[in-house]
Amino acid sequence: MKQNFDIEKLKELSRICKGDILHMTTVAQSGHPGGSMSSLDVYLSLYEFANISPHNYKSEERDRIVISHGHTAPGIYSVLARNGFFDIEKTIAYFRKAGSIFEGHVEPDVPGIEWATGNLGQGLSAACGFALASQQKNIDNNVFVVMGDGEQQKGQNSEARRFAVKYNLNITAIVDYNKLQISGCTADVMNQNIKENYKSDGWDVIEIEGHDFKQIFSALEKSIDNSKPTMILAKTVMGKAVSFMENDETYHGKPLTEEQLENALQELKLKNNLEHYKKLRREFRPYKKDEQTPLYPKVKNKGSIVYEKDKKVANRDAFGAAIEDVIKLNKGAEFAIFDCDLAGSVRTTKIEEKTLGKFYESGIQEHSTAVIAGAVSKENIVAFFADFGVFGVDETYNQQRLNDINKTNLKLVTTHVGLNVGEDGKTHQCIDYIGVMRNLFGFKIIIPADANQTDRVIRYITSRPGNFYVPTGRSKTEIITDTAGNVFYDEDYEFEYGKPDQIRYGNNTAIIATGVMLEKATKVSELLQKQNINASVWNVSSVSDVPKNFLQKLAKYDVIFTYEDHNIHTGLGNIVESRLVEEKIDLRLKKFGVNRYGVSGNNEEVYKLQNLDAISVVETIKSILK
User: Fold this and answer.
1) Checking phi first, is residue 168 left (phi over 0); if not, alpha (psi -120 to 50) or beta?
2) Residue 570 CB neighbours (<10 A)
3) Which CATH number fits domain 313-477: 1.10.443.10, 3.30.260.10, 3.40.50.1390, 3.40.50.970?
C-alpha cells in the first residue's frame, strides 16, 4: 500500500484530468462530464492509494476497484491514462468511437476496469463477488467500489449491503454524494437516507468532503483497517471547478459546445486542443482488442453416476448428485455454490451440509446473487448459481446479461421450468427460458433429457470456462432407453456439445424434442408404431447451437414435428423453423409447445389441457400425416 501522497501533485493532476474529460466528451459530442468531474478526485486518490498499477492489473493479488456508475467513464479513463495504463491522446480522441475500447460506459476490455456497468446498482454486488473470491482463496487484498448517490435508490444495493455484512467482506464503498441526478435533486426525485441505510444494515460510515485529498486518504486508511464493510459518503460538486457547470444537473449527460469548452478551459487555465483530437478521431481505424481471459481452474471431467431404468428420477436430483460428486473428485479446485433460500428444492442441500466447496446462502436476493456469482466466476473459481427458472432467468435477466457482457464463467442451473412444474401454477411455470437466454450471445443453453444426461452435462460444463445455462425441470421422469430397452445414456456416454442424439428410428416422420419432453416423444413414437406409423425421435439438448446440416437428414420426410415444454413462439420450434429457412429445406413443420400460461395441477393434467400429452400429440400427428 502506498503511504506518501503528494497532495499538490494530485491537485494539479485533477485540473489536467478535468480538461481531458471536457475534451473527450466534446470531441465525441456525447458523454457525461458533470458526474465524471465530481467523482474525479476520488478516482485519483484511489489509484494512488490502492495496490493496482499498469504492471499488476492482471495479478490475482491486486486490489479491485469497481466503478458502479459507469457513465463516469471519461473521469476514470483519464485517471487510468494519466497513471500509465494506456495512451491519453488515444483515450480522448477515440472516446465513444465505434471500434474503440473506450466505450461510453466502462468496459473490462479497458486495462484497469474490473466490471462493465452503466446499468446502475450493479457495482456493489460485483464488489461483493470479488471480495468473496479473495476471502475464499485467502488473498489479502482490498476491494473498493465507487457509486453514484442516485443509484442508491436501486433495491439491489440493499441486497448487496446485507450480503457484505453477513460474510464480513473486505469492501470499501464510496458514494459520490453530489445530490444530483438526471431529473434534478436526488431528494426531490426520490427521497433517501443513504447514511442511515448503510448503518442500519451493519456498515460503518465515514463522511468526508469528496474534493479534499487529505480527507479522502484518511477515510481510505480507516476503512481498510476496519473489520467491517465501510461506506465513505463523499460530498462532491457536479461539474467541479467550472463555474457554469457546478451544481447543474444539465451536465450530467450533456457535453459542452465548442464555445463552452473554450470558456471552461480558460477557467481551468488549460490549452484548447480540440482540433488536434478531431484530427486524430478522423484518422481512427478499428483495432483488435487485447481481451483479458478470466482465470478458470482445471477441473477434470471424470466419473459418472448411472441411473437404471427401473425407476423415475428428477433431473434436479441428478444435478445435486453430480455437482457433489464433481467437487469430491476435484479437491484441488475451488468451487462456490450460490443459493437463494431454495437449497432443498434445487438439491444443493448436501453440499451445504457436507461443506463441499463453499456454499453461500444469499436469502431471497436473486438480483445481487446473480452478479455476485458472476464476479466470483471470473476469479479462478467454479461458480454455480442454482435457482428456479422464474427467478434465475426471468427475474434476473438484466443481471445475466451483464454477466455475459463481463465474460464471466457462470454455471446457471434452474430446476423449475415449463409446465413440468405442475402444482405451483403459472407464476412459477417458467415457459420462456429458451427464448430469454438465447438473447445472450455468450450463454450456451443445454437442456438434458433425463438423469443420466443431466449427470454428464453437469460434468461437462464444470470442466469448461464460459457461461452455461442448464434448465432441469422439477418432476421425476423416466430414464431414456434405446429400442432394445437398454439405458441410452449409459456408462459409456460422454456429452458432446451441439450433437443431437437419435433415440428412435422411423421412415414416416421425425419428432425433435428437448428436455423432459423427450420421454413423452418416445411414448408418442411407440403409440404411433402400433398404428403402423414409424416416427424417428431426436433429442436436441444443445438448443442454442443446433448444428448445420442436421435437418438435412430429415429432408426425406414430408413433415416433421418439434415437441417442447416451452413457449411455442420462442423455443425449439422457432429455432428449427429458422434453420429450415436458412438451409432452404422444403419441409413442413408442426410445432408442439406451450401456447398459453399454464394452470395449477398435476403436470400430466396441465399438459393435457394444452394438448401436449402423448395421446393428444399422437392424434394430431395422425391427422396431419393423413
Assistant:
1) left
2) 18
3) 3.40.50.970
End-to-end Cα distance, the chain: 79
Average pLDDT, the chain: 95
What does the alpha-carbon distance between residue 523 and residue 561 come to, in Å, rounded to a whole number? 14
CA 500 vs CA 433, 503, 517, 544, 590: distances in Å:
20, 9, 15, 12, 19
Give the domain 7-282 fold.
Rossmann fold (3.40.50)
598 and 425 in contact (C-beta within 8 Å)? yes
pLDDT for the residue numbered 1: 47
In Å, how far are 147, 401, 562 from 119, measured between CA atoms?
12, 11, 37
Question: Hey, how many other C-beta atoms are within 10 angstroms of the C-beta on 6?
Answer: 11
Residues 6+ apart with CB under 8 A from 343: 349, 352, 359, 361
605 contacts 475 by C-beta, under 8 angstroms = no
Structural Rg of the chain based on CA atoms: 28
Q: Count CA atoms within 13 Å of residue 353 on its CB side.
A: 8
Bridging pattern class, strands 184-185 and 335-339: unpaired
d(CA 416, CA 390) in angstroms, rounded, equals 8
CATH architecture assignment, domain 501-625: 3-Layer(aba) Sandwich (3.40)
Residue 357 to residue 337: CA distance in whole angstroms: 7
Handedness of CA 481, 486, 487, 490 (dihedral sign): negative
What type of residue sits at position 175?
V
Measured CA to CA, the distance from residue 149 to residue 156 in angstroms comes to: 14
CA–CA dist 341, 384 (Å, integer): 15
Rounded CA-CA distance 280/39 in Å is: 27
Question: What pLDDT is attached to residue 302?
Answer: 84
Model confidence over 39-73: pLDDT tens digits? 999 999 999 999 999 999 999 999 999 999 999 99
How do beta strands 559-567 and 588-594 pair?
parallel
Name the pLDDT band for 626 (thresholds 50, 70, 90).
confident
The one-letter amino acid code at 388 reads F
Cell numbers placing 454: 443431466
How far apart, in whole angstroms, are the C-alpha atoms of residue 80 and residue 102? Answer: 12
Q: CB under 8 Å to 301, separation ≥6 — which residues?
A: 459, 460, 462, 463
- Are 307 and 452 in contact by the 8 Å Cβ rule? The answer is yes
C-beta separation of 370 from 385 below 8 A: yes
Give me the residue spans of the domains in the chain.
7-282, 313-477, 501-625
Its pTM stands at: 0.96
Query: DSSP of 270-288, one letter per residue?
Result: ----HHHHHHHHHT-----
